Fold this protein.
Amino acid sequence: MPSIRETGISVVALLGISAVLVAGLVTTAGAQTTSAATYHFKRGIERYKARDFEAAIADFSEAIRINSGFVKSAAKKGNSFKESQTAGIADDDRVTVSDPFNALAYYNRGITLLANGDVDRAIDDLNRAIGINPRYTDAYLTRGRAWHSKGHFTRAIADYDHAVALDPRSAFAYNNRGIARKDTQDMAGAISDFDKAIVLNPRLVEAHINRGAARCAVGDLTGASADLNKTIASDPRNPMAYNNRGTTRQAAGDFTGALDDYDTAILLDPESAFAYVNRGLTRLQQGNIAGAETDFKRGLALAPALKPDIERFLRAEKQPKKQ
């Protein structure tokens, strides 16, 4: 891969929508269940917010256990405990959701498992939530993120397709599908999705950052710079924006500007492995071998998975340059 534009590492972000969605589920938790299940559900959310994921998982599990017994008992008495979910749904496309409490609980436990790094169990819970409520847009979005984290981009795109179909005004769905498309090298599709996300929510910083990365990947450095400059103007403490603008400047041969941006990204986020590695690549191109080695060591200590990217770049640098 001969050019810096192709080999330089840029970062795109899957939106952290799960934290927002978890907090927004509290008000519906007590619709059909016992106070004990509701108590554990709400405490699970608070523990999730505090990043005590193991305790949150235990609470959601207990909420599911209590409510499942409650629903079985109610069914024996002849009560179905079904709740119609029809808000915003056309009359010919209504759906009745049985046990909506457990749909919420499985969804929240799935989010928490995903945050805790247990991707497979998270997918299982999200499958259950969708099985209970096939129109659960947020569950499709989160399951798409889970598939993406496993490298199953086609499955992720399929889930985002469902989310877009259910909520065509979801900027999050378009943004996340754009990331998955970018990772399948469908740059035109990715840019189209980021365009739609930005139209729906012009303040969605991540969509501007991600479109900038995609534009850089196809050589549209002017467009990429415009996206990233706009992001930095509105969010001057965003390390990802500086890292990606550094990549764009590096691709344009502006090594001084690129180093300035990587320096700022590292200042804002000292744990940014991408910024260290990208700064190392730029220093290497300037002939600063010692500085490059220091940055590579720091970047690899933070993210060992970047080693193949560095090795690929080094191999490309050793190739004879075309006149």
Notes: The chain has two domains: 9-171, 242-318. Confidence is low (pLDDT under 50) at residues 1-31, 74-97. Residues 57 and 109 are 6 Å apart (CA to CA).
